[in-house]
Amino acid sequence: MTIMKTKTNGKKNHGNLSRVFFLFHIMNFCDIMYSMKRGILSFLIASVAMNCGAALANWQYSGEYTYNMYEYDNGGRASVSIRGGASYARSKMSNDTSIVFSYCVNPTTGEIQDWTGECDDGFEYSTGGLGQLGMSKMSEINFSGGASIGWILPEHPQWRMELGWDHFAEVDYNKTPLFSGDMELSNGTVIRNFNVGGVQSTMSTDLISVMAFYDFFDGYVKPAHTMIPYVGIGFGYADTKTVMSFYDNTGELSFNILQDFGVADESTGVINFYKSTTNTSNIAGVAALGFSYGLVDNLFLDFGARVSYLPRVKYRLSNSDGSRHLDWFSAKNLIYANVMIGVRLEF
């Protein structure tokens, strides 16, 4: 009996120990899970903090970020540049005068007399316009210079957009005679080799332009120590200033209607015309080509040529205070051709 009682107590003790060990394992498992939960939570918090930090820092860089936090260069840049060189101005000159000469003409003999209010017997009244006479072309070389700010497009760094300013220095237009050619009168008589007037004048232009350039290279970053060709096209606003001193070298243009634009000589009656200044605005077209050479990663020498087209630039007579003007002649289809060297910084 004693032995049987002892065995029975042993089984009860073994059961109690099993329950203790089972509870111990459950508590240990819960502790491990709790530790893992804290670790996962800590990892998530750290990840969120790192991502937020990267997002907050993103304003400092133009590139995009990848998972390893390295910056990706998408080619986007700002740029500034300066340039200077020679400029060639060429234009057809147009006679814009509305002056009309009056004559007395003998249709039988072809004799021509100045009209003084009436014509003698055998003569008939006839008129001819000064605007019929031609002018010599303008063709001059001088200096030009300019500067630009721009933006190189991200993901498409071959394209450059620039806002630029260019100044074309004064070019001279000095001619004597100013107007020359054959003038046909109203009765059909032709006055051959009619030459009149003279001028000393200057012209200068400031041009504000918007340009699109395409650089011929592969990739997102321009290579250094390499010639990179480019072409460009754009348009702009051109303000051209002309300063003109006109003189009547033959006395044939000293009409009473022109005396408001000068002072007549007391002895000869010939008008000494005032120096006049005229500003003309134009919408200009611009084309460019050239190549750049990378000195370092972001500094380039620029060798280029530009052609600018202006439809018309006016020269006018003015009165003493500049309140009245009279169209006199103009430069039509004005072309500025520039050859320049410059420096461009991209950053």
Could you describe the 3D structure shown?
The protein is an alpha+beta fold and 347 residues long. The chain folds into 2 domains: 59 residues; 236 residues, Beta Barrel (Porin). The protein is built from 1 helix and 17 strands. Strands 3-7-8-11-12-15-16-17 form an 8-stranded antiparallel barrel. The longest helix is centred in the N-terminal third of the chain and has 56 residues.
Features:
single chain, 347 residues, alpha+beta, 2 domains, eight-stranded antiparallel β-barrel, three-stranded antiparallel sheet, 1 helix, 17 strands
Q: Based on the coordinates given, report the CATH architecture of the largest domain.
A: Beta Barrel
User: What is the H-and-E element order?
Assistant: HEEEEEEEEEEEEEEEEE
Q: How are the strands ordered across the major sheet? A: 3-7-8-11-12-15-16-17
| Structural class determined from secondary elements | alpha+beta
Give the distance, in angstroms, between the N- and C-terminal Cα atoms. Answer: 101 Å
Approximately how much beta-strand content do the residues carry?
A: over 45%
Gyration radius, to the nearest Å? 43 Å
Low-confidence stretches: 1-26, 39-69
In CATH terms, what is the fold-level topology of the largest domain? Porin
Percent range of helical residues: 10-25%
**CATH structural class of the largest domain:** Mainly Beta
Care to count the β-strands? Answer: 17
Q: Please, what is the average pLDDT?
A: 85
Biggest sheet record: 8 strands, antiparallel, barrel
Shape: elongated
Number of helices: 1
Domains, number: 2
